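FAQ

Q: What does a record look like?
A: Structure on top, sequence underneath. For example:
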């Protein structure tokens, strides 16, 4: 085998390793971003009843806190969807799609809230 062929094979192997690691990295980013959404949803779930019960004297502070939680939740969703888009683009782009399909990477779905989740929870005082 000539030196050129060996170098070409080495470059191909290194590229395959790079693309495989890119899939691992972006899949982990997707998982992490989704878990961040769960954290924010849990925080909102825990926070709203507490806010409703303690609103009487400090309503402005709680409203700002709730807005902050909603803003963080929105940012987490955007981050998750951006990572999903990056991952799916890598999965569909040539030649990385060959490696992704070889290792059974599957397309991810972006975060989509249910119709009930799209609405802010109603509270009564």
């Amino acid at each position: 085998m000539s030196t050129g062929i060996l170098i070409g094979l080495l470059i191909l192997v290194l590229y395959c390793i790079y693309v495989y690691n890119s899939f691992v990295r972006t899949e982990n980013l997707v998982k992490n971003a989704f878990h961040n959404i769960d954290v924010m949803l849990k925080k909102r779930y825990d926070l709203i009843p507490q806010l409703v019960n303690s609103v009487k004297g400090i309503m402005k502070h709680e409203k700002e806190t709730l807005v902050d939680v909603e803003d963080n939740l929105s940012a987490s969703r955007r981050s998750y969807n951006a990572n999903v888009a990056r991952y799916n683009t890598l999965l569909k782009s040539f030649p990385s799609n060959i490696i992704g399909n070889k290792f059974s990477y599957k397309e991810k779905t972006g975060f989509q809230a249910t119709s009930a989740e799209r609405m802010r929870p109603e509270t009564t005082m």
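Q: Is there anything notable about this one?
A: The two ends are 81 Å apart (CA to CA).
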